[in-house]
Write a structure and sequence with these properties.
Number of strands of chain A: 14
CATH architecture of chain B: 3-Layer(aba) Sandwich
Number of helices of chain A: 12
Radius of gyration of chain A: 21 Å
CATH architecture of the largest domain in chain A: 3-Layer(aba) Sandwich
CATH class of the largest domain in chain A: Alpha Beta
Strand order of the largest sheet of chain B: 3-2-4-1-5-6-7-8
Strand content of chain B: 15-25%
CATH class of chain B: Alpha Beta
Shape of chain A: globular
Oligomer: heterodimer
Distance between the termini of chain B: 40 Å
Helix content of chain B: 25-40%
Radius of gyration of chain B: 17 Å
Distance between the termini of chain A: 45 Å
Strand content of chain A: 15-25%
CATH superfamily of chain B: P-loop containing nucleotide triphosphate hydrolases
Number of strands of chain B: 8
CATH topology of the largest domain in chain A: Rossmann fold
Structural class of chain A: alpha/beta
Order of helices and strands of chain B: EHEHEHEHHEHEHHEHHE
Structural class of chain B: alpha/beta
């Protein structure tokens, strides 16, 4: 067991990726993610790994494609506008069934937006990160410890299902410092018989590609991939439930806004409101079962986000009209305060008689 | 005899340098507030051009409430990620040694952050000044005295200035206990020894000095202890 150290979220993502066996990092600087790349630049040479600052985000994601095709554990990171640039390459990774880890330390948008924290890439990450029938597994850590734990886990999930995995963090989590226990170095990795890493005349050569000119072939592959997605939905939902057993008001929040919501929920409990918090950790697959379990006691739901209301759609899909679902948030880099969230809880409780 | 947890005597101009994330901003704000409460005319200069969040400029209202003047990079607190230094810094430095003034410069982390100090070196050296090097035994990548000592020559080279002392700011934020502080005492002494510099002080969280742990013998165990409050905060 490693001892506790103090780290920035961005550094924890980088160090933990190295411990998960990532030896190929391709990046491009952008605030508020830059410490991650800077850390990799310092550490990778000492691990006999590759740190490469590409000429652009587009180049970086295609380098990830190349490294992943050889079976290596590889990662790239950026912040919102840079992630949009990577979108084409991410769709190619999905189309070629390549495992890779992509970090998005979100900032305000759209466009160049601003450098303050945001969660406004939720739709992009969970709905349309790339063109085509595609999904990524998306994790939303809410502490520096979870930044370390989930990037480590992400590499395993990527290899297991042959899919890109995204860590959807935000500037607050990337920049803040907290004590963290880093994971042990990973030493055993699964076989990748599909990798294009030299056949030595002992097997047919492997082709890694996302181009299928015969419609029937492409449809068959998409159907097979969606069977994998179904398995991911069945087995990889992750969330944390806080004070939900008797909750009449259920707050749903992820990442940094979940930490704000938790403070508000505690205060509302002290004032006698039966309120709980569901914190989705996997955003795709969305933790539908955790929400469903609260349905017996819940009278209303409140989604708290640092955007104009995005995850609230997924909450509504699960609730499916059976209860009211409301939204509260700030956007553009403005962070909701615990007091504001508390007032929303109190108002909603009054409205539905909780 | 000096109280074990009070402010050590500050010169007219104090420079706080150190590893990225060693706690320079929180320490600088504590020094500024304590000096202001002693009746000095305090100016805190935020010279951090590296860090976009959690910088002393973010706490301007708190500091100004204590009567402290805050000088920030021109675009600090806006969403413009532009490393522009305020021209006002020259005026502040040149007037530092005037009667009762106390200027504290919160420098950015590592040699990269210290680069911004270089252009002021000549002006600073004309004043009564001290440059301190902040270390934290629990900070990833600077956990041994050797690692912690290795960074200072780089900072000195980029800033064109020499450090006068080491401040042991070893902590684990809210998880800091008496043991956390005591376990890092040797680290502080060894790092200072390797650098051939005096250990100016060792910080102790205010809550461990005056808090519920009344049985704490920390202030007796720690030589030159300085009690600091956690002022750099998250929004929850």
């Amino acid at each position: 067991m490693s001892e506790k150290v103090l780290m920035k979220g961005n550094e924890a993502l980088a160090e933990s990726a190295i411990r998960a066996g990532c030896r190929y990092f391709f990046g491009y600087p952008i605030t508020p993610q830059t410490e991650l790349a800077a850390y990799m630049a310092k550490r990778m040479p000492k691990e006999n790994g590759v740190y490469l600052q590409a000429e652009s985000e587009v180049a970086a994601i295609n380098m990830v494609y190349g490294a992943a095709a050889t079976g290596a554990r590889t990662m790239t990171s950026s912040s919102s506008p840079g992630i949009s640039l990577k979108a084409e390459g991410i769709s190619y990774l999905v189309g070629a069934d390549l495992p890779a880890v992509i970090i998005n330390v979100q900032r305000g948008g759209p466009g160049l937006g601003g450098i303050q924290p945001s969660q406004s890439d939720y739709w992009q990450a969970t709905r349309a990160m790339g063109h085509g029938d595609s999904h990524l597994v998306v994790y939303a850590p809410s502490t520096v410890q979870e930044m370390a734990d989930y990037v480590y886990h992400a590499f395993d999930i990527a290899d297991k299902y042959r899919t890109p995995v995204m860590i959807l963090a935000d500037g607050m989590l990337g920049q803040m410092m907290e004590p963290v226990v880093l994971p042990e170095r990973k030493t055993e990795f699964i076989e990748k018989p599909w990798a294009a890493c030299g056949h030595d005349n002992k097997r047919p050569h492997n082709v890694v590609n996302s181009l299928y000119l015969m419609a029937d072939d492409l449809e068959r592959l998409n159907i097979e991939r969606f069977e994998r997605y179904a398995e991911i939905k069945a087995t990889e939902q992750r969330s944390e439930s806080f004070l939900c057993d008797d909750a009449e008001i259920v707050v749903v929040a992820f990442g940094a806004s979940a930490r704000i919501a938790r403070t508000a929920v505690k205060r509302a409990r002290e004032n006698g409101i039966k309120v709980g918090l569901i914190r989705p950790i996997s955003l795709w697959p969305f933790p539908e079962r955790a929400i469903e379990r609260t349905m017996d006691t819940a009278k209303a739901y409140l989604s708290v986000e640092m955007n104009m209301g995005q995850m609230v759609d997924d909450v509504r899909l699960v609730v499916n009209g059976r209860r009211p679902v409301e939204f509260f948030g700030h956007t553009g880099g403005v962070i909701p305060t615990p007091v504001e969230v508390y007032i929303q809880i109190e108002n909603l409780a009054e409205k539905v008689g909780a | 005899m000096q109280q074990p947890t009070t402010l050590f005597p500050l010169p007219s101009l104090t420079l706080i340098t150190g590893h990225y994330g060693s706690g320079k901003t929180n320490l600088s704000m504590n020094l500024a507030i304590d000096s202001a409460r002693q009746g000095r005319t305090v100016t805190l200069v935020d010279l951090d051009l590296v860090n976009p969040y959690f910088r002393s400029s973010d706490y301007k209202a708190l500091l100004e409430g204590e009567g402290i003047t805050v000088v920030s990079p021109i675009f600090a607190g806006t969403t413009l990620d532009n490393p522009s230094i305020s021209g006002a810094i020259y005026a502040v430095i040149d007037a530092a040694s005037e009667n009762g003034n106390c200027v504290i410069i919160d420098v950015g982390g590592d040699d990269v952050g210290a680069t911004a100090l270089g252009r002021f070196a000549k002006n600073i050296e004309a004043q009564d000044h001290r440059m301190y090097y902040v270390i934290n035994r629990y900070r990833n990548l600077t956990q041994t005295p050797q690692e912690a000592a290795a960074l200072l020559p780089e900072i000195e080279r980029k800033s064109h200035m020499k450090a006068h002392g080491v401040i042991n700011n070893s902590h684990l934020q809210y998880e800091t206990t008496d043991e956390t502080v005591v376990d890092a005492l040797g680290f502080g002494e060894e790092t200072a020894g390797l650098l051939g510099l005096p250990l100016v002080c060792t910080t102790i969280p205010e809550t461990l000095v005056h808090g519920k742990t009344a049985a704490s013998t920390l202030t007796e165990t720690v030589k030159n202890g300085y009690a600091v409050s956690i002022l750099v905060r998250t929004p929850w």
